[in-house]
Amino acid sequence: MLLGNKIIVVIFFVFGAYITLDYFSLIRTITPAFDNLEVEDARRNNTRLINTIDNEIEALVTFTIDWGEWNLTYKYMDDRNEDYIQDNYLPALSLFQDEKLELIFLVDMDGNLAWGRVYDPATESMVDLSYFFSSIDTLLQSFLSRTSLDHNENGIISTNLGPMLIASNAISTNDGESTMRGALLMGRLLNDSMLETLMKQTQLDITYWPLQGSDSAVLGIEGLATLPGEGEIITNVSDENILLTYSYLPYLYGGGLLFRVETPRLISSIGNATVRLMLTSNIIFFTIIMIILFLLLRHIVTKPLTNLREKIAEIEIEPHLDALSFKRLFTDRNDEIGDLETEFDLLLGNLAKKNSKLQIEIDERRKMEAQLLYYASHDPLTGLMNRRGIEERLEQVLSMLQVHADEHVLCFLDLDQFKVVNDSCGHIAGDKLLKKLSVELQAVIRNNDVLVRFGGDEFAVLMEDCSIDQAYAVASSMLKAVQDYQFIWESYSFRVGASIGLVAITHATPIDLIEIFKQADTACYIAKDQGRNRIHIYHSEDIETAHRHGHMQWVNRINKALEKDLFCLYAQPIALLRDNSMNHYEFLIRMKSETGGIFTPDNFLPIAERYRLISKIDYWVVENVFRLLSENPQFMGEVDFCSFNISGQSITKADFLAFILVQLEKFGIEGNKICFEITETSVISNFDSAKEFITTLKEVGCRFALDDFGSGLSSFAYLKNLDVDYLKIDGVFVKDIANDPIDLAMVKSINEVGHIIGLETIAEFVEDDKSIAILKEIGIDFVQGNAIGEAQAIEGILAAISRPTSSLS
């Protein structure tokens, strides 16, 4: 039978029974019933107030337990390290203000106050303890004596500023295995602000009085003969409009709070109105129908729906709802409520499946983020800290020098003859040698020294709390370890050397990270210049030597090239293998010498990156590429896109991103004509910045290529969260692909995964037709290299662009 039919049957049955009720019986039964209901409602209001206060105390207890059973709190009671207090209790008074606390006490096992503060919400500042308490010794002893690992003392106490909710918890570790180290007390004032909150939560009109003893004056005013007992509620009729209920909450140590709740006598008014309405038969008839309908709805509809709501509440307390733990929650019914339960079951089942899938995705993302965070400061090949990691650590050391006159040493180590191994046996052998040497070097440095792979074949060591003489001894051990190590690869045997530079970091050292790196690099350069396989300690006059040689010469050349506009653009075609068209170009930078020669990027870009000049070059490239495209509309119209490299140092700078957007608008360049190339190493080192950089420029149509893919981390996980368009496979895997099966397998793997993710692939360093055929068979999308076309000055490209589009033969 349907639910509606059930209601109709019951309505007629009840109507027939109640139609004969006598008018006078209604008068005798309705008024007392409404009066009793009103009293019960008023008492429930008072009970709800007491429960709300108990809930506030329980919330305070829970918060106190969290902090009391925290390992750091336990540790503080042992070592009294003030860092714990500064880090957790005092920063901008946030703990007191956010949690609405006015009291935090840490009491040791002797009943002494290890640390404590009281907070005055009126002045929003810490105040003296006497502001709240005339004496706290008895209070501390009382709480400590009643607090144990199995018992928490909580309730209400009296203070100079009024009643206070207070809770204590034994200070122990969170595993519950430790011994008690004292008690943690936390308190909240039951002041006007809290009273207002209680009134909002309960929607009640509340008044309270703090009492000591019987306080007959208050009782007399309120017309009470005695205080309510524990759990007792006294009802008092104030007048025909208000019903008063009283309850009493005792303090923990004498006295207590008398609460009064004023309840409007709405129910009584309704009862009187009902009686008046029943003076006529029609009013009696319709009132009976409404009562019957109410009772029926409550029995047939409201109660089942209430049960349904309770079941839903059970779901809310489940910590995890997934497809494995999901089970049917309701029993079968043959009515509309049953249909509702069935639909809810289906909905909950689908939700459980989606929740399981979402949890898997969240776990994968967290794992990836943890890996990215690690790789941001560590070298993936050796597992050592990378340049970014040592920069952060060195910044800390330099800041501490302003306070403590310590002495530290930075060591640079540059391997000698490493290129011989790389050129003779390939990059795999070179990587193996770097990993082996990192183990050898780690074994001879001090335990607290930080070994870093600075890049390429360079290492660095930060030696904290170390004199220059001690550092020289460590460096000597490092040099011997490198010289003594014999590296064997297949049928080859190699020995390498090292040039080591040391620079002292003291209070007199210029507080400049770049300057210290420059000094260490200078010392390393001089060691290499003096014959290699030696150690050189930096002296102030060394900078003159460095200026006359090596890196400093290139630094000067780079700065002069920027000042005199001695950089120029070359371009190399990129061919689309699908139709052999060449409508894509990569812009490459060159430096002109003052005598008319041309320097390739490998001569000056590593120096520019090391000495933080690379961003200036990036600015030059962006402006000049955009200007060239603007001044040559035919070229811009013919090509699909033009690409060029951006360094990792630049993508972290917000002003560089803003500069690109301004230049696009200034020169009227369409975003889809530009493809920025960034290396995977720079992306991982600055993942969040790189992601924001890419997202912003993709919004205006720009494209992105991940350059030299495979040379760094070669992890595909982060590609799902990085909105790039192309993968440029590192040329070290491509140039010998026709002869090396390992290189062939690497290229196949990168191409396949790239296509699955939705990226197009570009192979670099394509040197012959045989390689082109293999790459086409694999399914590579684009190829670039001397077999397609050598890089040439942009003027030659512009001259040729007017001719028909060239293609691969």
TrEMBL record:
SUPFAM superfamilies: EAL domain-like (SSF141868), Nucleotide cyclase (SSF55073). SMART domains: EAL, GGDEF. The chain crosses the membrane at residues 7-26, 243-261, 273-297. Its cofactor is Mg(2+). It comes from the Bacteria. Pfam families: CHASE4, EAL, GGDEF. Keywords: Membrane, Transmembrane, Transmembrane helix. GO terms for molecular function: cyclic-guanylate-specific phosphodiesterase activity. Residues 406-540 form the GGDEF domain. Residues 551-805 form the EAL domain. InterPro entries: CHASE4, Cyclic-di-GMP_PDE-like, EAL_dom, EAL_sf, GGDEF_dom, Nucleotide_cyclase, Rev_trsase/Diguanyl_cyclase. The keyword Lipid biosynthesis does not apply. NCBIfam families: GGDEF. This is EAL domain-containing protein. It comes from SAR86 cluster bacterium. The lineage of its organism: Bacteria, Pseudomonadati, Pseudomonadota, Gammaproteobacteria, SAR86 cluster.
